[in-house]
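Re: export button greyed out
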Amino acid sequence: MRRREFIKISSYGIAGATLLGGVTTNWFDLYGDQLPDPGTDGDRVVPTFCEICFWKCGILAHVKDGRVTKITGNPKDPLSQGHLCPRGTGGTGLLYDPDRLTQPLLRVDKRGSQEFEAVSWDAALNEVAENFERIKARYGAGALALFSHGYGGSWIKHLFKAYGCGNIAAPSYAQCRGPREVGFDLTYGWTVGSPERTDLRNSRCIVLVGSHLGENMHNTQVQDFAHALRNGADLIVLDPRFSTAASKANHWLPVKPGSDLAILLAWMNVLIEEDLYDRDYIERYAYGFDQLKEHVKSYTPEWAYPRTGIEPDLIRRTARMMGASRPATLVHPGRHVTWYGNDTQRSRAIAILNALLGSWGRKGGLYIPAQVNLPPYEYPSYGAADHRPDRANPSDFPLADEALAQGIRDATVPDIPGDERIRGWMVYGSNLPASLPNPEQTYKALQELDFLAVVDVLPVEMVGWADVVLPEATYLERCDEPFAPAYREPFVSIRQEVVPPLGESKPGWWIARELGHRLGLNEFFPWKDAMEYGESRLEAAGLSCEHIREEGVVRAERQPIYFEDGAVPEFYTDSGKIELYSQKLGALGFDPMPAFHDDEIEDPPPGYFRLLYGRAPMHSFTRTTNNRLLSEMMDENAVWVNATIAKEWGLEDGERIRLKNQDGVVSTYTAPVRVTERIRPDCVYIVHGYGHTARGLHFAKGRGISDSELITRYTVDPIMGGTGMNVNFVTFVRAGEVAENGATGADAAVAEEVAS
Amino acid sequence: MSEKRYAMAVDTRTCVGCTACVLACKTENAVAEGYSRDWITTAVSGSFPNLQMSIHSERCNHCENPPCVHVCPTGASYIGPGGIVLVDHDKCTGCKACIAACPYDARFVDPRTGTIDKCTFCVHRVENGVPTTACQDVCPTRSIFFGDINDPDSEISRVLRERDHYVLHPEAGTRPRHYFLK
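Workaround output, generated via the alternate export path:
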């Protein structure tokens, strides 16, 4: 196969619009030859913001003859700064995905059969409203729950709050960022937030703990990361895999999976023992230094070595490198941090390291963000929210500050006593079988539900379980809430309709309002549409709407973001200081300072390897693997296997295998082995998001291995309920062994599906 | 003033190989599905845990001595404005002689037209008042430099003066105008 002949695709939207040579001009009389004019500039160029991931970069959508021809960065937007990641660039692949949901659907066979009939919006919305009313009348609004991931979900959340239901969760908390936010909140009285308050662009030394920037492609972060590298910043990368970021590093520490905390503690030890920490900063702002000093005394690099595999000398050298650049040394808090169940404590350790380096509130460390205050729309007050005092909510996890998505799932299965069980779900943009650990438990909950409504743009696995499917318009076809994040400079950006919604798909605000009307909540939906809603909030903030529609963005006055420039050092902790020692954790029976427990992390059984998963720059979760355009860059995942291990097992590069986990679960599909030196021998790695089984995803179905179906085990973080998911072990299953292991389907059939 | 001479340089220190350049080129130039005019290569050397990896964003090298132009039997491949190597689709018969001659594997037959397609350095932009190529414009790590190397004040002239750089297949004698910054 030639290098640029990536794949053959049978049906694919964008190319049809503008064929090469369809329009040719001859600008160069001098040359007299025809020059190719691709003609992709729009007749209209509409500024809006992206939603292929959740970073919300400002984009310019070019529209020609009613079709979006290309998407570029909006130079006026502080997040994209005119540049985009591959996913945002390939957004037309979602807009023109031939598999999109375009009609409301009602289930016609048993739940999960993926059999539906198309119905009118009236019929679909009435069905949802009747079921909500029935469940609320019998069990209370707390028997309903909403899972919501994505910016358009704000309208549905509003609907649920107005309806008196407090069970609102997203996998972005307990399956992703939650431990980090709790760990930093315990230390600084502030969360890290999104976009992260990392001042990467000004860092002189960057420490990545498992973060794979460059593969994890949050646009501004990667821009800032590259900027720092260009300016000669030092880079230290802790990762079992030689990631793209590791390849740029001064020092790569191929840490034994699960032992990151030991390295972090040893770094604290060296910073303190060698007097490399910021003494003035600690004296002024921190609480509990003496206890910390005593606590980390025994965590020497020599202690860490057998636990981590990282030589003491390298731990010392990297600690000195960090100390030399402080306070412009950033130990990155990471983002997807639900790894081992001790994740809040690991995040605490990262927070404490940053404090020792004096980097919080300092240039090149973690800045103090500013935000435009957009006054809320004037609604009646929501009133008391009914939620179940159960696993979904903080009773078991005292420091959880959001509902736990797996908790709502677990409160749905029938071992919950009496009428306490959750009976009805609405799911917005969340492919729960792929995002929650232990999918069997998710399927069990789905089968037990009285009612399930799903709002999505594509027929993902979640949609296949729905009783009612409500097809949403994509981000390029709808308006949403104005976006005013806490960031290094305050700004507001807007999402506006670039092209009309495809088929009968409708924007989230319309769906929420129509349901609101049917549920007697008219007073909560007084606006005409989302644009009128947004404009009234912008006007209340004193911002010009006309301007923002043309530019996509309005910036407000910058404020000081560093202590040295006048940002106020305020810490909303119990002590009012940076808490190196946490009395709150101590009082609840947790380690008041992060401690490494030797029995905490299990080693792989013989013949098994720890399953690690991560991101590829051209994909977002399971949401983009059906995007034909992005898939030209990567159309399935591969199993990264250390070259020595591959040799021992006789695995050839490119050989298709399945993975089997410690509980005997075999991956539904196969993926090629990638024999590589770039990973430790004790683990394997796959990119998350592949191995779709949904029938309606005609491109993605059957491609690659799903990490989600192999994550049958998880370790719950006792502090906030996060689900540590890097605790599964897998072994290799060759084609011939598959039948004996009871896996579905023959390899030949899978191979055919992949090729079709 | 000397004639324009366009060139490109890719910073291997900052490029993460994300493929935004490939996608931006595809959408800007409406490249045929399944094909692309630029691509990413990675090369890993060493063994665990002593490893190096280099990442390249590659495309037509717009050689000063382009074998594709020399072998083209119909004169379809030619050197256009600013030294950009282009293909006249009316003259191209799709004979593929240029594909065989190119040491960079930069050319392919566009299945929609049966003629040769390749990187144009976004000539429709850079000769029409938009000074950047689409791949350069999108690049989130700002690793792509493009401009006139006959202008000593251009950014690309500056980075080529300041940074060590290399070209691919110098032995082919093609005098490429696509550089990689170390």
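The CA atoms of residues 229 and 610 of chain A lie 31 Å apart. The button fix ships in the next patch.
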